[in-house]
Design goal:
About 40% of the residues lie in helices and about 20% in strands. By secondary structure, the chain is α+β, with helices and mostly antiparallel strands. It has a five-stranded antiparallel β-sheet with strand order 2-3-1-4-5. Helix 1 packs antiparallel against helix 4 and helix 2 runs antiparallel to helix 3. The radius of gyration is 13 Å and the shape is globular.
């Protein structure tokens, strides 16, 4: 995890959601709690989408997901995350190992994260 120039905690977003647990938190304190708990599971990087930069990334994702295998479902999720960022909330995305997916999602939820999903290769799981 790293701190960006604009004060955001996170890393440069990867171009895919696959293999990640993604969710929404209300503030930086909650983000920090989720990040610290996930690090105990071996998650090394938590991407952060917030503010104008987050809106820009999520806007660009809307076009990209239209051509995906599960495009409609993915587009709906991207829209929910975009709406959350526009309301001042924070979206996080954490690359997880397949064997820790459920535990990572439940850990995030236990620290107050909402809209938690995992994008697998063929399945999108809501928690």
């Amino acid at each position: 995890m790293m701190k960006t120039d604009d004060g955001s905690i996170g890393v440069e977003p990867e171009k895919t959601a696959y293999g990640k647990v993604i969710g929404v938190v209300k503030n930086r304190d909650q983000l920090q709690a989720v990040s610290e708990a996930l690090s105990k599971l071996g998650v090394q990087d938590v991407e952060v989408l917030d503010g104008a930069a987050g809106i820009k990334v999520l806007d660009s994702e809307q076009d990209a997901v239209a051509n995906c295998f599960m495009g409609d479902m993915e587009a709906d999720m991207v829209q929910r995350y975009l709406d959350a960022v526009k309301k001042g909330l924070i979206v996080f995305a954490a690359k997880v190992e397949p064997e820790t997916t459920d535990q990572a999602a439940e850990t995030a939820k236990a620290r107050g994260a909402s809209e938690v999903v995992h994008f697998g290769d063929w399945v999108i799981t809501n928690y």
